[in-house]
Amino acid sequence: MIITCDKCNTRYNLDDTLIKDKPVIKVRCYKCDNRFKIHRKTTAVEDVPLRNIVKPCLDNTIAISNQKGGVAKTTTCMNLGVALSLMEKKVLLVDFDAQANLTIALDYPSTTSSFFDILRSGTDDLSKNIIETKYPNLSLLPSNSRMALLTKLYMHKPDFEYLLRDKLSSVGDCFDYIIIDTPPALGFSTFNALMASNYVIIPTPCEYLSMHGIHKIEDIIKIVQARSGRHIDYKILITMHDSGSTASRVIYQKIISMFGDKVFDTIIDQDQKMQESQIVHLPVIHYDKQSTSAQQYVRLAREIIDLKSSTGPENY
Length: 316
What we know:
alpha/beta; 12 helices; 14 strands; 36% helix
């Protein structure tokens, strides 16, 4: 069930099965440290370990994820974020891949402090490591190669999968959207990103093995939902589409027939302007706003905004 802190109004998802026979429990808000009680039918009070039952809902966070590489995850993360920022939405991009492709694409050195450095410093203030980019309304939490050490140092620690979520909760109210770029592998980074998100975009080209990759992500999302006790929605984004290819058209229709409304209306086509923009480290919208891919990412941003407006912040 959803509970709300009576001091700061932060929402949490409470797993009913963990407090099944407990008439009253005491909990603490992670955000403001307020302690309050949740009452059942009697007046007895029993303390319950807070981390086991209280999970903050980051209702503005999107993970860009696919276990297959080369499907335009980073391209989508950057250009969707820029498109939203141009619509007066405050956006935080999180580079959660040790390759630091998003950081490099935005023209920052791959030696910039990362989430790993934040954890090692012991600080709870994420804002000091967030970069305000040269693009209005767009901020970046960068990555570097030290992110590869996260698995070795933290993977087997209790509640390792909530590290990113807990850090992001301190800045969540500062942004309309938080978009996380994930690596092409299931591990510490992808699991943390999904645990922190309430929506997943699955970029996929129209290739023979694409549908297999989509099913794998669906399975991972189900695991995360079971572990976190909350619903996570997702949609498939067709990327690098070749409209002149018979194979692409056939596979696209197959994806539509299999996944229906789980596929975005917007399709991202192959576009030479996109390739040129990557060479000069510019989002395609700022490189050539009239290009096909620039206009398509603008349409995708509108779809995202419309989804949030029509279904509510908890499940867009």
